[in-house]
Design goal:
12 strands; alpha+beta; 4-stranded antiparallel beta sheet; globular; 8-stranded antiparallel beta sheet; single chain
């Protein structure tokens, strides 16, 4: 099968029809056909009104559309590491298994993450929903929500571009799920990952065994669906993810609030003083001192503060239950030249000389693991540990966008219609997004009205001058 051309002539609109079901999404679709004759869809979710998308976003969406899952130079492997099952799509156009799809899947896939070293690289990760007993909670609309809402808020955090994709469930069963069950539960996998593969094998064989079936399969039950994305980055240690010493759940989410950037966010002092106080307090913990270092640059802390303010807001809105421990970064060199900020991606490990005398190495935050939000059943730890209530510094642009979003939701305007129609959310899931947005807007506007919220998070301005003039904001938006 030739690789598709993602052009208007080859697209159709995928509108929700009738009762809301999880595959009833709104966007522009490209149709595929599996070797069994099953229709598959790739869908670029419609752009969110008021959101800003980059050329890189569009290019990534097009690249996902261009993947032919059945080409001889493409191989499919089960993801048997971490806690949730998924599928890695590898490029095998070169390397020891060039053009040998069956050989790669038979011999390289059991190597787990090391399979990538035997390929020309990974093209994408396919993540379906999985919320059965004994498995890790994942919900495929969640990465789509994070992608589009992060662009709406213009949050400078690396939320991966994500598209919707369905796949013939019989092929998924034969090439991926059965192998995932066979090779998981050993060195590369957790018990939850193994349980996820067991459930997927049973569901691929008989979709009605998974409840609700519409969370995992298209309405005709012929295809499993999920999201395609790529998520580069390295995992932060305790300097941002917290020590996690108090265990999963509320405990580690409270530990998360004892990091230097979060402590600074909680301080009512002016920005530079808040940074210094947050660092000093966090360094009292031996693990954070080891991971962050005592000489952390204040400019790095201000970038982190801005990142965390946006993360907490998104996680609050979507009831994210699995954020702490899953925050990553990509390093950059940043410096000022001719009055303008310059940036270049840095080498993660090894020698990497500074490109300019005043260049500072900044870890830019990436949210690569966003699949445990969106469901009403998930535990909202940002809410239950009162993260928003504790904030004393906030990005002014994010605040304005939040207030505009809340006003639109209340009036059931175009943003409300967009969220209702675009992601396949059911009534409870949609209501949760609407209610959490109203709660977030209420919490922050009340903090603002008391005079306790300062709009001084502008990391680029701080990079240039080491200071930020707080921006006056109408608390009502």
């Amino acid at each position: 099968m030739r690789r598709p051309i993602c052009a208007a002539a080859l697209t159709v609109l995928a509108f929700a029809e009738g009762a809301i079901a999880s595959d009833a999404i709104l966007g522009v679709a490209t149709l595929f056909q599996s070797p069994n004759g099953v229709e598959e869809r790739w869908v670029r979710i419609a752009p969110m009104p008021g959101a800003v998308y980059s050329g890189a976003d569009r290019a990534a969406e097009d690249a996902f559309c261009g993947i032919d899952l059945y080409a001889a130079d493409v191989a499919l492997c089960p993801k048997v590491w971490s806690t949730s099952p998924g599928m890695i799509v590898y490029d095998i156009s070169s390397g020891p298994y060039a053009g040998n799809r069956a050989g790669f899947e038979r011999s390289a896939c059991p190597e787990g993450k090391d399979a990538e070293d035997l390929s020309a690289g990974d093209l994408a990760k396919f993540k379906p929903t999985m919320n059965a007993r004994g498995t890790s909670g994942t919900f495929s609309p969640s990465p789509l929500l994070y992608y589009h809402f992060s662009r709406y808020f213009e949050a400078e955090i690396g939320v991966p571009t994500a598209v919707w994709r369905s796949m013939d469930r019989e092929v998924h069963l034969g090439e991926v799920a059965r192998q995932g069950l066979a090779i998981s539960g050993h060195a590369h996998s957790s018990e939850m990952n193994h349980n996820g593969w067991r459930v997927l094998v049973e569901a691929d064989q008989n979709p009605e065994t998974y409840t609700p079936t519409s969370d995992l399969f298209t309405r005709d039950r012929a295809a499993i669906y999920g999201v395609l994305l790529k998520s580069p980055g390295s995992r932060y240690n305790s300097e941002v993810n917290g020590t996690r010493a108090s265990g999963w759940g509320r405990g580690q989410n409270k530990d998360f609030q004892e990091t230097a950037p979060f402590l600074a966010l909680r301080s009512d002092r002016p920005l530079a003083e808040a940074v210094a106080a947050g660092v000093a307090e966090a360094l009292k913990d031996p693990q954070i001192r080891h991971d962050m270092g005592a000489d952390v640059d204040p400019r790095q802390i201000v970038f982190w503060m801005t990142d965390l303010a946006n993360i907490v807001l998104l996680d609050f809105i979507f009831s994210q239950q699995d954020r702490v421990g899953n925050i990553e970064y990509v390093p950059y060199w940043m410096w000022v030249e001719g009055g303008a900020i310059q940036a270049r991606k840095a080498v993660t490990h090894g020698d990497d000389p500074a490109p300019a005398p005043d260049a500072v190495r900044i870890k830019r935050t990436h949210l690569n693991d966003n699949d445990a939000g969106g469901r009403a059943e998930y535990a909202n730890f940002a809410k239950s540990t009162q993260m928003l209530e504790k904030l004393r510094h906030f990005p002014p642009a994010t605040y304005r966008k939040l207030m505009a979003l809340q006003a639109d939701f209340e009036a059931q305007g175009p943003l409300f219609a967009y969220v209702r129609d675009s992601f396949g959310l059911d009534a409870r899931q949609l209501d949760q997004v609407i209610r959490n947005t109203a709660l977030a807007a209420g919490i922050l506007s009340e903090t603002c009205a008391r005079g306790d919220l300062v709009f001084d998070l502008d990391p680029e301005a701080f990079l240039v001058s080491g200071a930020v003039t707080p921006e006056p904001i109408d608390c009502r938006g």
